[in-house]
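User: Show me an example of a complex going from sequences to structure tokens.

Assistant: Sure. Here are the input components:
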Amino acid sequence: METINNKETNPRVSKEFSKGAWTAEEDRKLAEVIAVHGPKRWKTVAAKAGFNRCGKSCRLRWLNYLRPNIKRGNITDQEEDLILRLHKLLGNRWSLIAGRLPGRTDNEIKNYWNSHLSKKINPKQKPGPAPRKGTSIVEKAPQLADSNKANMYHIQAIKDRSTATDGTTTSEGEHSSSKQSTPSFDINGADDDFFDFSNESPLNLEWVSRFLEFDSRHHQS
DNA sequence: AAGTTTATCAACCGCACCGTC
DNA sequence: TGACGGTGCGGTTGATAAACT
């Protein structure tokens, strides 16, 4: 039999990678290989581990389960509150939200949102994934409203600038010139009406409160 | 106790971006 | 400069545990 997936584009079809739940043995091998080679070149990692998993699957397993310092379960009230606030701000950018919650993965937060928080927000709404667009403050921002792509640029700019503030790299000019010449809005938010959280520390909850203050002012005006 | 429904979460899928050649 | 491979992201699926009838 084995007619699981016939899509030509799916590498699993031709290579017949195994799927489904990971065994303890697979976890152990994966951890071993990553300890030696590091968490990169996932295709190579998968090959070195010697089991029949694709690199992508290995990456996911590592990031969501095996990685050190992962917290599992028991999302605290504080974390929940932060997720709610961040979701209001960012929408379904789970990886960005996870980035503000040390030890939590995007997958876990996404699952938690879909199973718990989306119901809290919209009790009448049928449970399930949140809508792709239009739910976040970022996406409602006037400068960005006409372009989904622009949202991506904005988020990327935020990421880039966060990286820059960590210490070393870039000047403002590099960001605006090298990667992204297309966006027509002012990404650095010099003009009004836009909460710039990009310089805030990931672990500092204060900026979230400041955002909410900003948010309520924005709605009053 | 057995059958059915609902909730949860690990894993998969497809797409888009980025870096390298 | 375009093709290609690697990577990351968000949406979705499927297995199974828990709750309910």
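The lines above are the inputs; the final block is the predicted structure for all three components together. The domain at 75-132 of chain A is CATH 1.10.10.60 (Arc Repressor Mutant, subunit A).
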